[in-house]
Specification:
It is a single chain. This protein is mostly helical. The chain has eight helices and six strands. The strands form two sheets. The protein has a three-stranded antiparallel sheet with strand order 2-1-3. A hairpin with a 4-residue loop joins strand 4 and strand 5. 11% of the residues are buried. Pathway: Protein modification; protein ubiquitination.
Length: 268
């Protein structure tokens, strides 16, 4: 737990602000901002001869794009650290599963008594107290609860994919609109350069209007990104929690169901 916050902080430092994933083959542009090489290539393809940074809007030259090897190495180290951490958590969960024994007989719990709502070992199952009762294997008893969790995971993942799709489409539409505005501005400059003072004043007026429209589109894009990122973060947290629940041993899952906490989780 002590390393969770620093790890999250490092992950934020190596996250591409365009694709919201780890920086892959990171490169820096003229303004100093860093993106994935493929994301930078997408910007250049969308904006043509005059690409601009999506964060600060400053133009940059394609030939000035430079790789950032230090960040690439940092990404590899973070991913390796997360794999090691996942392995440690898996080992701890297995140890916890092995330690879950019957308090009376110190045997592993294999059954669930539907009459008494208790977890039973083999000796409890054959005792006079429980032998007349209906007892099923823990995995079978836990299956309905596991299925409910998996159904919720499926819904949340589908919602996440929809948000990512809408965000990608919105990004493409805004970039296309920005490109169209820039083309219109170039056309206006070429047409009015040959005119008189009245035409030059009219040109400036139209340019100001286009600049305002461009600013509004850029601001709308930033708001869209902020809302999408916030919602994705919330869904990622819920998905992570439910994935953890779905991987729990059957005994622990049934114990949660017996205490009533599972019902509250399924209301998320």
């Amino acid at each position: 737990m002590a390393t969770a916050a620093p790890l999250r902080s490092l992950e934020e430092e190596v996250t591409c602000s365009i694709c919201l994933d780890y920086l892959r083959d990171p490169v820096t542009i003229d303004c100093g901002h860093v993106f994935c090489r493929s994301c930078t290539a997408d910007i250049c393809a969308a904006l043509g001869a005059r690409p601009a940074c999506p964060l600060c809007k400053k133009p940059f030259k394609k030939e000035n794009i430079r790789p950032v090897w230090q960040l690439a190495s940092l990404v590899e180290n973070i991913e390796r650290l997360k794999v090691d951490k996942g392995r440690q958590l898996g080992d701890a969960a297995r140890e916890q599963q092995d330690a879950r024994l019957c308090e009376r007989h110190r045997e592993k719990l294999h059954y669930y008594c539907e009459d008494d709502g208790q977890l039973l070992c083999v000796l409890c199952r054959e005792s006079r107290e429980h032998k007349p009762h209906t007892a099923v294997l823990l995995e079978k008893a836990a299956q309905p609860h596991r299925e409910k969790i998996l159904n919720h995971l499926s819904i949340l993942r589908r919602d996440r994919d929809k948000i990512q799709g809408c965000q990608a489409k919105g990004e493409a539409d805004i970039l296309a609109a920005l490109q169209k505005l820039r083309e219109q501005r170039q056309h206006v400059v070429a047409e009015f350069a040959q005119g008189h003072q009245f035409l030059r004043e009219r040109e400036q007026h139209l340019l100001d209007q286009l600049a305002r429209l461009e600013q509004e589109l850029a601001e709308g894009r930033e708001k869209c990104q902020a809302r999408g990122s916030g919602e994705l973060a919330r869904l990622a947290l819920v998905i992570s929690e439910l994935e953890g629940k779905a991987q729990q041993p059957a005994a622990e899952l049934m114990q949660v169901a017996l205490t009533g906490r599972e019902g509250r989780l399924l209301l998320l």
